[in-house]
Amino acid sequence: MSVAPLDRLMTKGQIDWPEEVAYATCDPQVTHSPLFPVEEAAIANAVEKRRREFTAGRSAAHAVQEKLGFPPTAIPMGEDRAPIWPAGMVGSLSHTADACIAVGALSHRVRALGVDVESLAPLESRLRPYIANHRELACMDSPPGLAALQIFSMKEAAYKAQYLLSQTFCDFDTLEVVPEGLRFRHSVPPFARGTILPIRQWAGFGLCLSLCLLKRPA
C-alpha cells in the first residue's frame, strides 16, 4: 500500500468532507522536508519507523497550516505526546505505517476535532470485547470484525477531539456508539453524561477514516 489509497479516498466526490476542515496527506515511506529543531528534538532517540511517521505527520501538519493561512511553524510535542498547535487553530494527526493525514480548522469556527485512519481489516476476536459491546456492534452495518475496527476508529477520533477540551484520558468504555454518534456514559468535564459527539466515517481503498468535528455555535 502507498499513500495513494488515502488520496483517492479523499478525492472530491468520494466523501462529503466538511468545508471548515483543511487536510493534507503524506507518505511515511518517502523523504520529507526537514523538521523544525524543536520537532527534531522530540524524536532524537526514536527508532526509524517512529521517525518516519512523526516526520510525515509534521509535514502534513505544516501543509495544513498553510492551507489555513498560517506560515508553517513548529508543532512541538507536549508532555502528553499530543501536538501543540499554534494559537488560532486546532488540529489532529493520524497515521498507519503507510499513510498519514493531518486536519486543522480555525479555532473561532471549530472548538475541537479529532481524526483517525486505520487499515480496513477485521479486528481480532480477542480484542473486540475491549473495544465495543454487543449493542454497539449491532449499530454497525458490517460483520463483527470490521464493525469492531470501525468502532475503534470512531472512538480514537472522538477521544482526540474531547481531549483538546477535557485534557482527560478516557478508556474505550467512556463513549458508546449510538445512532446519533458517540455518547458519554459518564461526565467528563466539560462534557456532561449523555453528551453526543458527532462522528463521520468513510471506508474504501483499504482504509477506514474517521473524523469528529465539534463546531462552535453559530
Quick description:
This protein is α+β, with helices and mostly antiparallel strands and 218 residues long. The chain is built from 6 helices and 9 strands, in the order H-E-H-H-E-E-E-H-H-H-E-E-E-E-E.
Task: Describe the SSE topology.
Blueprint: H1 4-10, E1 22-26, H2 37-42, H3 48-67, E2 89-95, E3 100-106, E4 110-119, H4 128-131, H5 134-138, H6 144-166, E5 175-178, E6 181-184, E7 196-197, E8 200-204, E9 207-215
Antiparallel strand pairs: 1-3, 2-3, 4-9, 5-6, 6-7, 8-9
Features of the shown structure:
218 residues; alpha+beta; three-stranded antiparallel beta sheet; 6 helices; 24% strand; globular
Give structural notes.
- With about 220 residues, the protein is an alpha+beta fold.
- The chain has helices at about 5-10, 35-40, 50-65, 130, 135-140, 145-165; strands at about 20-25, 90-95, 100-105, 110-120, 175-180, 180-185, 195, 200-205, 205-215.
- The N and C termini lie far apart (about 40 Å).
- The model has no long low-confidence stretch (mean pLDDT about 90).
